[in-house]
Write a structure and sequence with these properties.
The chain is of the alpha/beta class. The chain folds into three domains: about 190 residues, Nucleotidyltransferase, domain 5, CATH 3.30.420.10; about 80 residues, DNA polymerase, domain 1 (Orthogonal Bundle), CATH 1.10.150; about 130 residues, HRDC domain (DNA polymerase, domain 1), CATH 1.10.150.80. It has 22 helices and ten strands. The protein has a six-stranded mixed β-sheet with strand order 4-7-6-5-8-9, sandwiched between helices. Strands 1-2 form a two-stranded antiparallel sheet. A two-stranded parallel ribbon has the order 3-10. Helix 5 crosses helix 7 and helix 9 packs antiparallel against helix 10. The radius of gyration is 28 Å and the shape is flat. The relative contact order is 0.09.
Amino acid sequence: MSSLTSDASGHTGPDQSTSNDAAEPQEQAPELIHLDAPREGVPLVIATESGLQRAADALAAGTGPVAIDAERASGFRYGQRAFLVQLRREGAGTWLIDPEPFGDLKLLNDSLRGAEWILHAATQDLPCLSELGMWPDKLFDTELAARLAGMPRVGLAAVIESLLGFTLAKEHSAADWSTRPLPEPWLRYAALDVEVLIELREALIAKLTEAGKLEYALEEFEAVRTAPPSAPRVDPWRRTSGLHQIRDRRQLAAVRELWNEREALAAKRDVAPGRLIPDSAVVAAAKAMPATVPQLLETHGFHGRAAQREAPRWLRCIAAARSETDLPPLHLPTNAPPPPRSWADKDPAAAARLQTVRPRLASLAEQLDMPVENLLTPDYLRRTAWRPPEPITEQTVDAALEELGARRWQRQLTAGLLADAYAHPEPLVAKESQDKPDGSGNDDGARASVRRRAGAGVAGAAASAGAAASAGAAASTAAAATSAAAAVGSIRRRRRERRSPA
């Protein structure tokens, strides 16, 4: 389809610029370069006290933020502890630390006091780093930054490729990192995970500032860093996959007994619980309630060595459940709202509020170019829609969101929108309309209402917030972009030189 242009007289006609395409050279996208080895080579793994001291001294002498990553053995070992910690800092290079010989890594943590830590998907690695006595004074999460920047893919390899022009293999991400010694290809992969995180941070700062979202990101990073530890779950065995198949309290007791026994044995042997018997086997045994070992071994999932070798142990769990008098309830009491699909029956007014606010929030997220779940946590939306504050005003909704944990930037952008939707909900439509694949549960009339009531306010809020975010950061963004470009250019030149014949 041809585009239209206007000439000096104001005449609008087909764009003629394409006729010169053959004569004018086209600007090509930079060549993607595969990162196959760290720039200083693969570091040795530090596993001694003297080596740890050298690493701490080098990192303390470095400058700027520090890139950090951790590798676990999920699905192989019990728990989520780190089996390798990777660090990189300007002036210090890359260090690979084996945490297993040490009680903790507080020495490293002390050497990084005051430094900003760069992690990708920080919520995945911070718990295992915390177990080692490590916690940042300041945080930059490249995965969260990419989400807020509106990038369509936010995996580390995808973000690096999009912003820096490098490709990064991820073939060892699900490996058993408790393996010793670690194979050299795995160490190369681990070092590459922090190779360009510093440059990636600078590119993301530039992208966020250009979009007026840097302040949003900084608030999000601080919220992640200062979030309190999750409270221990009540009845953690209720997380068993497939538990919804259990409809009987005695069978539920069997799940509890099997889960608790499996957990204790897994911790003792330092093996992932699912490698003893999978969740599907736990549920199948609870449903069948076998009385003998042969019956148990005929049950789905009881075919592995651990399942067969420990068959008497699992059978004792089922026998204990069969004679249990204190049976667990099918469901625990909760203060959370019911599933939204039941709202129309339980509380039509709440259903109308949710039906009205969802497309409006989605429209705002689209204008801001970010996932709607990052604009406002879905649980906060459901809780305020189910039981909004009284009276419903922007101020009371803002206070309710703050109490739930919403950040200041989120409240500034959404409190007024939520208050308007809750105070003036659209008429509740038929259930089949609520179950649209997009989850909006609203029609074109409601979307038109979004534009009429919220469009100007949304645009104004986004523009003013963007201006505020950009005003104080323009200089730092330019510096970050220049620094990132220089660093990336240097890496690309070295890669080309390595590939060129002597």
